[in-house]
């Protein structure tokens, strides 16, 4: 893990479909004006999106919903979030796969 490939992240999805994560990062992946590296933060999703699973990497995170929608956020300098740009994303953004005929089944970072 010399290069952060395993990440330093914990995530939890509670029974209210709320995702909490803890990250150790100077970029403050979770939208917060003051980085809170070791305190759980809520990540908000549309009420219609029930979270099935999440994958948290060293620089970005992914969530898949029960309707196979994929959301990403985090450091996006190299397009890591898969949303078609290089702008860091501080809140979850739905990855547009509708015109690519792709169905997301599993995620990993």
TrEMBL record:
<feature type="repeat" description="RCC1">
    <location>
        <begin position="1"/>
        <end position="67"/>
    </location>
</feature>
<dbReference type="InterPro" id="IPR009091">
    <property type="entry name" value="RCC1/BLIP-II"/>
</dbReference>
<keyword id="KW-0677">Repeat</keyword>
<dbReference type="InterPro" id="IPR051210">
    <property type="entry name" value="Ub_ligase/GEF_domain"/>
</dbReference>
<dbReference type="Pfam" id="PF00415">
    <property type="entry name" value="RCC1"/>
</dbReference>
<dbReference type="InterPro" id="IPR000408">
    <property type="entry name" value="Reg_chr_condens"/>
</dbReference>
<protein>
    <submittedName>
        <fullName>15969_t:CDS:1</fullName>
    </submittedName>
</protein>
<feature type="repeat" description="RCC1">
    <location>
        <begin position="68"/>
        <end position="109"/>
    </location>
</feature>
């Amino acid at each position: 893990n010399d290069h952060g490939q395993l990440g330093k992240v914990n995530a939890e999805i509670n029974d209210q479909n709320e995702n909490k994560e803890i990250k150790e990062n100077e970029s403050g992946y979770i939208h917060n004006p003051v980085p809170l590296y070791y305190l759980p933060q809520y990540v908000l999703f549309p009420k219609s999106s029930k979270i099935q699973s999440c994958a948290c990497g060293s620089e970005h995170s992914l969530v898949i919903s029960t309707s196979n929608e994929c959301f990403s956020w985090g450091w996006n300098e190299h397009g890591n979030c898969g949303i078609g740009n290089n702008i860091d994303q501080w809140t979850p953004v739905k990855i547009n796969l509708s015109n690519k005929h792709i169905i997301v089944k599993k995620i990993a970072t």
